[in-house]
């Protein structure tokens, strides 16, 4: 392997590995949320981060999006892609992240 290629592979691994470590135990679908919701525990961005939030409140919010009780621009459509069991698993997983 040429030194330049080895360096490139090393740099790539450094970028990919932290994300892989977070993803290892994530339930199906959980990582799709972080395309919009920040994956960083300290962010105060909009839409709000999911990490470390109370799972029961997350499930309740998602249930309200599903039924239309709660106004949404996009979450009403996102939540319809998941079963109630998947939502439970995703909320529990995010609640346990730090
Ligand atoms: C395409 C972007 C997008 C994706 C993907 C997405 N969200 Fe959202 N989320 C939003 C937006 C925008 C809001 C604000 C409500 C709205 O306008 O729909 C929101 C709001 C929420 C809220 C309510 C937060 C609060 O405190 O008001 C929860 C909970 C939530 N999302 C969970 C999730 C979960 C869980 C996933 C993955 C299954 C997910 N979201 C995927 C964009 C997204």
Q: How would you describe this structure to a colleague?
A:
It contains four helices and no strands. The chain has one domain: Cytochrome Bc1 Complex, Chain D, domain 2, CATH 1.10.760.10. The model has no long low-confidence stretch (mean pLDDT 84). It is globular, with a radius of gyration of 17 Å. The termini are far apart. By secondary structure, it is mostly helical. Bound molecules: heme C (HEC). The site of heme C has 19 residues, from helix 2 and helix 3.
Give the topology string: H per helix, E per strand.
HHHH
- Form type: globular
Distance between the termini: 39 Å
Q: What proportion of the residues is helical, as a percent range?
A: 40-55%
Main beta sheet strand tally, sense and closure: none
Structural domain tally: 1
Can you summarize this structure?
Helices cover 53% and strands 0% of the residues.
Overview features:
mainly alpha, binds heme C, 4 helices, 98 residues, 0% strand, Cytochrome Bc1 Complex, Chain D, domain 2, single chain, 53% helix, globular
